[in-house]
Amino acid sequence: MENSPKLTGYNIPGTNKKTIVNLYADDTTIFLWKSDRYTDLEQILSKWCLTSGAKFNLEKTEILLIGSKEHRERMRTSRRLHEQDQCWDENIRIAQDGCPIRTLGAWIGNETDNATPWEPIPDKIEKNLEKWNISHPTLYGKRLIIQMIAGGMTQFLMKAQDMPASIENALIKKIRNFFWNNAKTPPMSLERLT
Description:
Elements: E1 10-11, E2 18-19, E3 21-24, E4 27-30, H1 38-52, E5 62-63, H2 69-78, E6 93-94, E7 101-103, E8 106-108, H3 121-133, H4 139-160, H5 165-179, H6 190-193
Parallel strand pairs: 5-6
Antiparallel strand pairs: 1-2, 3-4, 7-8
Helix pairs in contact: 3-4, 3-5, 4-5
């Protein structure tokens, strides 16, 4: 696909490489330039699937439009990259502005709120900490639990996307409540613990 003369993909500034496809486990992200044809991509993918025995799930296919708002709206309305291209299959979901899609663990989109992917995480962490608290762990045990639960549930997303300050503050409060059994005034400052 990357060597296909039919697809332009994106040129990365400062390199002489073009980006067309990004593969990770069973996820495939394909980058098409405004002059590329979706029908050319479909032909390449059909040939590749036939040769490899793989199958693309059209029902899981999502298109994230990029460019100016007018350009995105034109593609969203016409369901194609440009006038010479064929319309996209009706089963393919086109991400709306303000609605991020998940790709390789990161949430991306147009006019999105960076806090959106983070919003469920503090509650998930709190519920897990409550379950662990039933066993009455020691302070050392709580430290390990916090590292495992809070660290484990945030580490990858933090690498892919920054954590908003509001989420960070909410997590600090939940961790502090777990560590000190909801004491109004913790016996030791957070700075002293670290």
